[in-house]
Amino acid sequence: MHPTQATTDCYQQSFDFQGIGSRRVEVDFSGGHLSSDGGCLLLREMDRADRLCEELAECFTDRRNQRFVEHDLAVMLRQRILALALGYEDINDHDSLRTDPLLAAMSGRADVLGEQRHLQHDKGKPLAGKSTLNRLELGAHGTNARTKKIAAHADKIEALLLRRGVAAIQRQSKAIVLDFDATDDPLHGHQEGRIFHGYYDAHCYLPLYCFCGDIPLWAQLRTADRDGSDGTLEALQKIIPVIRERFGKHTAIIVRGDSGFCREPLMAWIEAQPGVHYVFGLARNSRLEAMLEPAFWQSAALLDEEAVLCARAAGAHAPPVLEGTARSFAELRYRTQKSWSRERRVIGKAELTQGKRNPRYIVTDLSGDEPWACGERAFADGRSLYEQLYCGRGDMENRIKEQQMDMFADRTSTAHLKSNQLRLWFSTFAYLLMRQVRSIALAGTRLAKATVGSIRLQLMKIAAQVHVSVRRVHVRLCSACPIKDIFALAHARIRALA
C-alpha cells in the first residue's frame, strides 16, 4: 500500500493496544448505540416544560404537503437549536447526528431508530439531514412558494424572543437595566451585505445585542456600514412596551451603553419617556479634559499631598508625576457646541496610574433623587454611579462572548442576510434555553454561575449507552460521572416545571 493512501479496501474489525498488566486491550465497534451527549435529555425536558421550540414553530408557515412530510417542523427546530446548545455548530454535522437515537428522542421524534422512514436508504436515520435543515434556513430568504416551502416570519420570531426574554426577568426588580452593545461578526465568504469595517480590520457583520443581566432580549444582524448605535432607538420602542406590559409603568428602566450609544436622538427620546433613564459613556475631548483638570490635582493629592502643595506653590500647570494609582470623580454640566439639544449631567473620572492620565466620562439623566433610587448605593453619588452602575455593563461583554463562542452566533455563512439573521436567532434561542437550565435547574450549585460552555461540557457531555425496545428507551449514563448529584437535582427541578 502506498504510504499516503488514506483508506483500505477492507475495514479492520478490532484493534489491539498495549496491554495492561496481564490483560490484553482490544477495541472494536460493537458497542451499539453510544452517545457523548447523555445529558441532552435535560434540555429536552426544559424545552418540553418551556414550550420554546413549539412556540417558535408557530412563527413559520409550512407549505409542504403533509402527506409526504417525515420531519415535523417543531422536531427540525428542536434538532437544530438543541444541537447548537450541545456544541454542534455546523449544519453539516447533522448528516452524522441524524442517526443518533438519543438526539432523535431529544428532538421529540417518536421513531427514534428511523425504522418507519419511507425510503429504504433512509432507514436507520430518524432525523433530518443537512439538506433538509438547509432548506429550512433558506426559507427565511425567499417567498417563492414553489421553492421555499417553509417560510420564516421575522417579525414573529423577533417578538417571541423579546416576550420570552422579558418573561425571564425577575418580578422583584426595582430597576431593569438594559445593556446594548454591538460586536463584530467576521465573514470569510461572499455573503450578502459583506462590507469591510475599518475598526475591526475585517469584512464583517455588526450585530446589535440587548441583554437584561444574562437574559437576551434583542439580537439584530446588521451590515457594517453604519453607526454602532443604529437601530437602538427602534429596538427600545419595541422592548419598553413589552416590559411595561409585564411590570407596569412604575418600574424604572435604565438603558446602558458605551460611548458609541451617546447620540442625541437616542438620549432625547429616552428623556421624553416617563420612568426611562440612560447611562452612556462619553468620548473625551479638549473641553471635557479642561473641566476635569481640578480632579486630577485631587487624585495626585491622594498619592502625595505635600508634593502637590509644592507644585501648586511653584505655579505648575499640571500635577506632579507620582508613583501609584489614584482616582477621583467630578460632577460636570456639559453641552456640546452643536449636536446636543441641552446641557446634561456628566461624571468624569480622573485616574492617575504611574503618572499617566486615564480620563473617562459618562453622561446620564439620573439625578439620584428618584424615589426608587433612594437607599440604593449605586445611585448615591457620581463615583457610585460610575463604578457600580456604569462599569457593570462590562458583564454584557461576557454574555456576547457566550453567544459568539459557546452558541456559535457568528456562524453566519449562508449566502443571504435574512438566512444569517435566522441563524443568529437560533443561537440566541439555544442560549436562552441553556440560560433557563442555569437559572432554574442549577441554582445554588457550583454550576450556577458557569458559562453555558462549561455547563455543556460538565452536564451535557456525559457518556451514554442507548437501548431501544418496544416499551422503552433505556439510557445508561456513565457510572463514573462526577456530577451525579447535580444531574439528579437538575432533573427534579425541571420535571417539577411540567
Describe this protein's structure.
There is one protein chain. By secondary structure, this protein is an alpha+beta fold. Among the domains are: 155 residues, no CATH class; 82 residues, no CATH class. The protein has 16 helices and 18 strands. An eight-stranded mixed beta sheet has the order 11-10-6-12-13-16-15-14, with helices on both faces. Strands 3-17-18 form a three-stranded antiparallel beta sheet, with no helix packed on it. Strands 7-9-8 form a three-stranded antiparallel beta sheet, with no helix packed on it. A hairpin with a 4-residue loop joins strand 8 and strand 9. Helix 7 runs parallel beside helix 14. The protein is elongated, with a radius of gyration of 28 Å. The mean pLDDT is 92.
Any chance you could write out the topology, listing elements then pairs?
Elements: E1 14-20, E2 23-28, E3 33-35, H1 40-50, H2 52-57, E4 60-62, H3 73-85, H4 94-97, H5 101-107, H6 130-138, E5 150-152, H7 154-167, E6 175-182, E7 185-186, E8 195-197, E9 202-205, E10 208-212, E11 215-220, H8 232-247, E12 252-257, H9 264-271, E13 276-282, H10 286-303, H11 305-313, E14 325-334, E15 344-353, E16 356-364, H12 382-389, H13 394-406, H14 417-441, H15 452-460, E17 464-468, E18 473-477, H16 484-497
Parallel strand pairs: 6-12, 12-13
Antiparallel strand pairs: 1-2, 3-17, 4-5, 6-10, 7-9, 8-9, 10-11, 13-16, 14-15, 15-16, 17-18
Helix pairs in contact: 1-5, 1-14, 1-16, 3-5, 3-14, 7-8, 7-14, 10-11
Fill in the keyword field for this structure.
single chain, alpha+beta, 8-stranded mixed sheet, 3-stranded antiparallel sheet, 20% strand
